[in-house]
């Protein structure tokens, strides 16, 4: 059996995470702690996104390319990140030239 520290998707981990205050380090904030719906959480789980640090390393287009992650999930995710002071990775158009 895994402990909540080993399995961030277990009910125990989700409950214990909701009891502690959110930190400022995105690596310490699990995606289960932010205000997104089950659809977004399922997409994150399927794609190995466990922490806010994992999430903000993606661009919006990366997320919308994931199966099941549409415009509503994107809006919900952007709003949830904004609430805690983070944003998705921005596209660097200058580097793409």
Question: Can you offer a commentary on this structure?
Answer:
By secondary structure, this protein is mainly alpha-helical. Helix content is about 40%, strand content about 0%. It has five helices and no strands. The protein has helices at about 10-20, 40-45, 50-55, 60-65, 70-85. The longest helix is centred in the last third of the chain and has 13 residues, at about 70-85. It is globular, with a radius of gyration of 14 Å.
Protein topology:
Blueprint: H1 11-19, H2 38-46, H3 52-56, H4 60-64, H5 71-83
Structural class: mainly alpha
Helix-residue proportion: 40-55%
Low-confidence runs:
none
Instruction: Give the CA-based shape.
Output: globular
Biggest beta-sheet profile: none
Number of distinct beta strands: 0
Features:
97 residues; mainly alpha; 5 helices; globular
Summary?
This protein has 97 residues and is mainly alpha-helical.
């Amino acid at each position: 059996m895994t402990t909540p520290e080993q399995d961030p998707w277990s009910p125990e981990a989700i409950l214990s995470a909701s009891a502690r205050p959110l930190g400022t380090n995105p690596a310490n904030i699990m995606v289960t702690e932010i205000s997104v719906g089950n659809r977004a959480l399922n997409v994150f789980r399927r794609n190995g996104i466990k922490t806010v640090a994992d999430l903000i390393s993606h661009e919006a287009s990366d997320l919308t390319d994931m199966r099941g992650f549409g415009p509503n999930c994107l809006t919900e995710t952007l709003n949830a990140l904004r609430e805690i002071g983070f944003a998705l990775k921005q596209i660097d158009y200058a580097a793409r030239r």
